[in-house]
Specification:
Length: 273
């Protein structure tokens, strides 16, 4: 998978709708050589839609829409960011929530680590490579999802991030979803958090489902591997992609993360329809 790349100043792009369409279809978009302040970054993502701002320990008080993704610690040794410096398995964000509405994840690199790789896998293309019968079978499967510690990554029992993640009660949803903005089908497959499965109303072995689906989705041709450089802005659609990360070797690595939906772009497009 090769993403669309650009060195254009994203803050000067008038037609963000075209960026959103590419993002929805391929799962990602990369902008290099950006120069964003916190306010400029937040203003940009609010043009896409409403931004999450939960006011947690990883959200700077002045900029609650920004999540710090870093292994840095404060002077007392406390975490200041999410996801630390450990390896992260395949996932998309918001997996264990009942309502997944903040579909867009933006990652902006402030401090790089050239030894850390982010991998992204398109989850829509694999579905369309299947036969009609195979598609119908996978569309008949529902899965139960709930956050499980020590699966995608490890959090200590006293870690404030564990408290935040564990509050989500999970959900039951179709394994094959239909993107609300494109109508395209995609596999919703954060397999580390899948704890149950049904074919229609019949309960089936979720571990068997997982092992059958892994080689269908995680083919090399569906993946892109990115090493962040300072100034890179990477956008991901959480329905049409999964992502993972190798361990972070330089704890100073810092990304600013924002999660939002497409509501404002959608409203803008309706105005011009």
């Amino acid at each position: 998978m090769q993403p669309i790349r650009s060195t254009d100043d994203i803050t000067q792009i008038n037609d963000l709708g075209s960026v959103a369409k590419e993002l929805q279809n391929t799962g990602m978009f990369v902008f290099h050589e950006q120069n964003l302040t916190q306010n400029a970054y937040i203003d940009l993502m609010k043009k896409f839609g409403e931004c999450e701002a939960p006011d947690l320990f990883m959200n700077p008080k002045e900029y609650p829409e920004i999540f710090l993704v870093t292994g840095k610690r404060d002077d007392d040794g406390n975490k200041i960011g999410m996801f630390g410096d450990t390896e992260l398995g395949w996932h998309s964000n918001g997996n264990s929530r009942h309502l997944i509405d903040k579909i867009v994840i933006a990652l902006y690199c402030i401090e790089e680590d050239i030894n850390t790789t982010l991998s992204i896998c398109n989850t829509s293309d694999p579905f369309y490579e299947l036969s009609a019968d195979e598609q119908e079978y996978w569309k008949s499967i529902k899965i139960r999802i709930k956050f499980q510690n020590n699966t995608m990554y490890h959090l200590d029992e006293d870690d404030p991030e564990l408290e935040f993640m564990s509050k989500n009660k999970g959900s039951i949803r179709p394994l094959v979803g239909e993107h609300p903005h494109t109508g395209k089908y995609y596999f919703y497959f954060p397999y580390h958090f899948i704890i149950g499965a049904w074919e229609g109303k019949k309960k089936v072995d979720h571990e068997e489902i997982i092992e059958k689906l892994k080689p269908i989705i995680f083919k090399s041709k569906h993946q892109y591997h990115h090493i962040f450089k300072k100034g890179d802005l990477l956008l991901m659609d959480q329905f049409t992609s999964l992502h993972r990360r190798t361990p972070v070797l330089d704890r100073n690595r810092l990304l600013w993360r924002i999660a939002c939906d497409y509501k404002h772009i959608e409203a803008e497009e309706k105005l011009h329809y």
